[in-house]
Amino acid sequence: MQTHERKLLTIITEAAIERALIADARRFGAHGYTVLDVRGGGPGGEREGAWEADRSIELQVVCSAEVAERIAEHVLAQYAPNYAVALYLSDVQVFRAQKY
What we know:
Layout: E1 4-14, H1 18-27, E2 34-38, E3 40-42, E4 45-47, E5 56-63, H2 65-78, E6 85-94
Antiparallel strand pairs: 1-5, 1-6, 2-5, 3-4
């Protein structure tokens, strides 16, 4: 079965900016996205999601390398200075290239 190379951009951040991130991802060329409610901790402390302002999300976007780079650059410039943001990029293989 034939597969096609794409990138999986994962953004873990504060739920307060979810709608803005989705709009940005679409504006920079993402065809779709997945959002998950997540909890975790790191050097900046713990985010347990016990109250609304403490919620975190994971936004996943499967897209071309170019789109992933544009989104990541924007997120780092626009949101990372003021919000808890973690980003990572993975190589993935998709079956239906036209969806991504």
